[in-house]
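Exercise 7. Given the components listed, write out the predicted structure of the assembled complex. Treat all entries as one system.
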Amino acid sequence: EDQVTQSPEALRLQEGESSSLNCSYTVSGLRGLFWYRQDPGKGPEFLFTLYSAGEEKEKERLKATLTKKESFLHITAPKPEDSATYLCAVQAIGYSSASKIIFGSGTRLSIRP
Amino acid sequence: DGGITQSPKYLFRKEGQNVTLSCEQNLNHDAMYWYRQDPGQGLRLIYYSQIVNDFQKGDIAEGYSVSREKKESFPLTVTSAQKNPTAFYLCASSVLPEGRKSNQPQHFGDGTRLSIL
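Answer.
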């Protein structure tokens, strides 16, 4: 069964304390892996798409990496404004564009000043 | 600016009442989607549409209905048959991927929070 698991559920860091969020996935074939940021009461905001193992993408203090079984979202020297819920989603090969995008339940990241 | 507009931001439903959530996009995307988000759970797909006048059920379509009369609009009706409608509803759109291996991210609106009176 296709599945996406994110860990930890919640993470509290001090400002400047780097860490990583994990997204483990099980799909028959990966079409793409997406990372989103979601602020309270808002819709998810697209961050990155990763397609193949070994691929990396960066944006400001965020770097996403991909292996055959998991993806990491590395946060370097975070600031309080990085506090949000980070969602991972996986799209599997063999399905139509929409029917099989599986979302994880997210990691709530809180950065203390 | 291009984007997805959902309205209203907050909605209250009485017992036995149908309510309709609006979703409009000006991104010229062919595909549109409705998701439901509950605390501690991933987004769950309700309905999606890849072309005008055509739509497909997602994983949790029971108690919901949609229409796609225009490319820009994809309203969702929460019917009285949906016994647990309290949730955060998200509309999204995307370019249709071309080819078996291509992928396209979805872009989301800011959601409608539905509660029961």
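Discussion: The mean pLDDT of chain A is 92. The first strand of chain A starts at residue 3 and ends at 7.
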